[in-house]
Amino acid sequence: MTTPAINLAAGSRVPAVGLGLWKLPKPAAASLVQQAIRVGYRHLDSACDYGNEAEVGAGLRAALADGLCRRDELWVTSKLWNTYHAREHVRPAVERTLRDLGLDFLDLYLVHFPIAQRFVPFERRYPPGWFFDPDAPDPRMEFARVPLAETWAALEELVDIGLVRHIGVCNYGTAMLSDLLNSARIPPAVLQVEMHPYLTQEKLLRFCREMGIAVTAFSPLGAPSYVPLGMADSGESVMDQPVVLAAARRHGKTPAQVALRWGVQRGTAVVPKTERPDRLVENLAIFDFELSAEEMAAIGALNRDRRFNDPGVFCEKAFNTFCPIYE
To answer: pLDDT of 130-140, one tens digit each?
Structure first.
């Protein structure tokens, strides 16, 4: 099975459905990655901060050794953590990720957040997380004075030397993207942001289309990943909405499949996360139906500008530090 893909300005194609690896427990990671590749996934969305790249790498190596796919058929994304924004730390950070994943290069490397934090040496703690010193009497985030442009220039150098094929950013808005485009030698290939029917981000999506930046939607199902973290209420699921349920009945699909189809039909890639093998198959099975214009509009009208993953909220609650990046 070949998963439909979205096009990058540089000519590459990103499978429209990937497997998000956030919160995937280490003991389950290797086998789940193998299973995902076996059922047809060719897009994996990883990050240093997820803390499971070594286990993901074990799954990748096993899948490749078993002949489930070739490396050139895979799209592997990872992300630069906040503590590695300074130019001198960017290459060591990607080299650690590559070593853990067992790869020679990444297809895409993203700046995880537009937040520069004080460097934590690799040998002291990896991944470093959000606290500078979690054992301090009053642990907090500590910031570093690193311009975003310095970080981007260091990512461009990774492309020059072949460690990554494409570079991009996460959690940027239009103003930061505009500033980046004005100074970048290599423009960002991809923006990854939270995007679902409760957070449609129409202006941001339109801006990216006009600028030739592909968009990947994380948390494309909205609340479910955040309920266990206390960052969403159980009653906030878009999959319980009547318009989503009605579309699911009409098409003989699950509400989750409708929400994912809505995302890819807008022209974005989606990276849902699951630990269940049955859901792996379900989340890929969204290319044999199409939502009508009326269904797309009705689902888009659910927008509440509800952002579940907001550092301006969770950093203060969890890390004792006010850290807003959105207005």
So the answer is: 999 999 999 99
